[in-house]
Every structure is written in C-alpha cells, then in structure tokens.
Amino acid sequence: MRPMVEEVRIQNLGVIEEAVLELSPGFNVVTGETGAGKTMVVTSLGLLFGGRADPQRVRPGADRANVEGRIIVQQDGKVSARVEEAGGELDEGALIVTRSISSEGRSRAHLGGRQVPVAMLINIADDLVAVHGQSDQQRLLQAGRQRAALDRFAGDKVAKPLRGYIGAYRRHRDVTQRLEELTTQARERAQEADLLRFGLEEIEKIDPKPGEDERLAADEQRLAHADALRTAATTAHEALQGDPTATTGATDVISLLSEARHALEAVRAHDEALAAQADRLSEAVYLVSDVAAELAGYAEAIESDPALLASVQDRQSALSGLIRKYGADVAAVLQWAEHSAARLAELDSDDDRIEELRAEHDDLTRQLTELSTELTKVRTEAAERLSEAITEELAALAMPHARVVVAVTQLEDFGPHGVDEVELRLASHPGAPPLPLHKGASGGELSRVMLAIEVVFAGADPVPTFVFDEVDAGVGGKAAVEVGRRLARLAKSAQVIVVTHLPQVAAFADQHLVVEKSNDGRVVRSGVTALDAAGRVRELSRMLAGLEDSELGRAHAEELLSIAAAER
C-alpha cells in the first residue's frame, strides 16, 4: 500500500466534539452545511503535521483538544528512519501521530508512541503531506521549493549537470575556505612558524636524550653524597669481613658464620636435619662474602668529584629550562619537538600549497561557470514549458485570463544548486504585472494555482497526500466540474483530501465524508459520517438544491455521479 493518511480521530476541536475520518487512498471529499466544522478537518490535519496550536480551537467547556492520525508509511523510507531515531515505533506498518492542545495553550506531540518536539512533526511533514488551505499555502511559496519543482519538471536534462555541479560546488567551497584561511591568516601563521622554529633550535642546541633527566638525577644524588656513601660502604664491609691482617679474635660476620658452620660440620653425620642447617650456613658464608667483596670495590671506586657534580647540575639546569617551556619531562619535550617539526614543515609549505589551491580554485570556477550556464539554459527552457502548462490548467479552473510565469533570474555568485533563482509569479488578469504568488493571488486563487501546479506534477511529486481547502472558492458551473476532474486525476497518483461546497467536485470523489451537526438545545456537536451511494445522492441533492429530497435535485445528483464515474 502506498503512503497515505488512513484514519484521523478528532476530539473537542472547534465544533467537533468527537469524529473519526476513515480515508481512502484516492480522492476523499469532505462536505457539510456552513458552520458544521468542515474547516476543522483541515485544521486537524495541520495540527498532526506541526501546525500552530491555537487554544481558541479547543471546544468550549473542554480542557483539551486531541487529534490522532494513523498514517501508512514506507517501512524502509526516510520517515520511518526519523521515527526510529526519535525512539518511536511503527504499528504494523503505520505511524501513529498524536497532538493535543490545552485550553491554556500548551501543546504536546507524540510520534510512534514517543513524545517529541512539535518541530519533529514539521520535519516529517515535507515527506508526507502538502496542505493547501487559506492559511497554509507555504510549501510551494518557498524559493527553494520552487527551484526544486522546476528541476523536477525538467527531469534528466537538469539532473545530470546538477549532480556534476553539486560535486564541483562542494569542492569549490572547501578550496575557497582553505585559501581564505591560508591567505587571511598569513601573519598569524608566520608568527606561529617563528615560535616553532625558535623552540626547535633551542631544543636542538641542548640536544636532550630520552631518559636523560632521570639518569642525571641519579648521578647528581650519588656525586653530592660521595663521602657519605664511601663511609657507609667501608663500615659495612668491615662489619661483614673485618680486617684480614688482625691477629686478635675475629668479631666480623663472616668469621662468626664460619665458626658456626665448622661447629655443625663436625657432627653433621649424626643428624640429617643438622646437616641441612650446616649447608645453609655454607650458603650464607658465600653470599656475605660476595656482598663484602662488592662493598669493598664500591668504596674503592667512589670518589668526590666537585667538577663532575657541577657539570651534572649544569646539564640538569639546561634540561629544566626546556621542561618548563615544552613539556613535563624530557620525553614530553622530545614529543613536542616531533609534532612541532611536522607543523613547521606544513607552515613552510604554505606558499606551495596556496599556489596549488589557487590553480584548483580557478579550474573549479571554470567548471562551475560551464555547468551553471548549462543549468540556466535548461531551466529557462523548462520554465517556459511549465508556465504554459500551469496557465493552461488555470484556464480550465475558472481563471481564463490568469497567467503564470516561472521566472528564472541569476544570482551574482554560485549557490548550492547553481546561480539561478526561481520564482513562480501570477498575473491574475491581462495587463497586470506578474507578481509573486503570495502577492498576486487571493486565497481561493492561490489554492487553484496550487492545484494546477500539483496536477502538472502529478506522479512526479514525492508527497503522497494533498489537502485542499476552498480550492473551489469563486468557482461554479463547468469550471467546478474541471476542478473535480483534475482532483480526480491527481488522486490517481496520490491521496487527495478536499473540503468543498461544490457538488460538481464532490461527485468525483472515491470517498465522501459529510460533517453533520445536531443541536440539543444547549450545544452544537458535529461528527463525520462516511456516505454510501444513497447517502451521496442525498448530500449532493442538498448541495445542489438545498433540499435533500428534491426530486429534481436527486436526479441532477445521480447525473453528476454517473458522469464522474464514467470519467474516473
């Protein structure tokens, strides 16, 4: 099933207390007596798609007005993706949209079961519905929309050069931005290069080595305490090994350990446990002897060297100066130097890069000039054909003297889609200058212009649902039949919902809904009813003659329905 609005539920909106609209995928018409609330149907659809929440639309005595819509959408389409991004879900392939307005003016919106900002409804509306009402003629009034409409009308003749133009434009924009950065910030970049060069020269002059700061710290500690270290090593050595030339009784550790080992060795054969202890004492003697020997060597090797200590401290001072400027330690200083060398190489190559970018910029400018010229030519030709097609449609819609002009003018600079600005203008009568649509047409005329445009674009417009309110304002007779015929034609490729007071238009509908009102003496309530064949005859008779049971009116109604059915 193609995308469409399947059902709309309305509560406490205007004069409508409660109503359900079950819509068909084709041509849906809504009729009813004046004041019954037909316009509220269009208002409800507008609210579903982000329209302004007016608290005065809340039914008197009610706290809140609610509108709920069930919309069939493509499960792998853009709308479904946006709903999923918002955290909502589809209900068996349908999107449930709700909108409520409190009598104080607060508005809430839900999309696929998830509360969302009203702006989200506006965001998805462009892909779902086009509302052409007295206050909603915005879609094709936007300059970008009019340019896109003309491009869609022109077809492949515009599509191919436009794809090439868009790619070249994006690259041209990036190159221009990069050139401006390189040229306008030349002074700042030169200053940055000087600072980097100074830092690198300073680091290169001192030439720090990885881990050098840690090694120097250890050397400085050893040299600064050489006397204390030598004394400690000598004292420890004498305690372990004593004086080997002494003739008195030995009191050093090795002699005492040796004496203990000899005592155990004499009796080790009598007990394995004691023999094991004798072995451990032997190991201890060897270990302590090794330590004593190393301490003797250490004490002999270490010496006070004030000159070497001063040299180490000077080197530490030089490295500390680098660390204060360029990093937390020598490793960080070396890392800064590596990154800065790469950045300096980039800055030093700016002149060459600028020349390359200028050459590319000139080439892209030439491409854009050629492609934009081609686009202008194709659009101008298509604009003439589109103007004629829309004007021809208007002639059949009771605007025989009106003329639509699709004006293509050139901007001074390249834009995202070329240098062309497209504007639809309407001359409502001979001799009148063509004016922008929002200035040159009344509300009813504007609706008919929009209908003519949509009919011309039938099948090519991506919007699946069109809503027209008062499209037949100021129309009657044969022109009204033409309006109905064109709405039916549009309904072959999209869902169409029309509020009308003309039986000639209503006769072409696939689904006829009537808004009925009743009066219980206190308050008016309105509801919506789908009509069967007999009901349609009665309603058309009322619209024709003002009397539901007029034989002449019923005969005329049946004739209208027969003619419309034959043409659909």
UniProtKB/TrEMBL annotation:
Coiled coil: 347-381
UniProt entry keywords in alphabetical sequence: ATP-binding, Coiled coil, DNA damage, DNA repair, Nucleotide-binding
CDD domains per record: ABC_RecN
Molecular function as annotated in GO: ATP binding
One GO term describing the cellular component: bacterial nucleoid
A GO biological process held by the record: DNA repair
Transmembrane region(s): none
InterPro entries for the chain: DNA_recomb/repair_RecN, P-loop_NTPase, RecF/RecN/SMC_N
Gene3D superfamilies: P-loop containing nucleotide triphosphate hydrolases
KW Coiled coil (keyword) present: yes
Keyword Coiled coil belongs to the record: yes
All residue ranges annotated as the RecF/RecN/SMC N-terminal domain in the record: 5-520
Biological function: May be involved in recombinational repair of damaged DNA.
Family: Belongs to the RecN family.
Name of the protein: DNA repair protein RecN
Organism per entry: Actinoallomurus bryophytorum
Lineage of the organism: Bacteria, Bacillati, Actinomycetota, Actinomycetes, Streptosporangiales
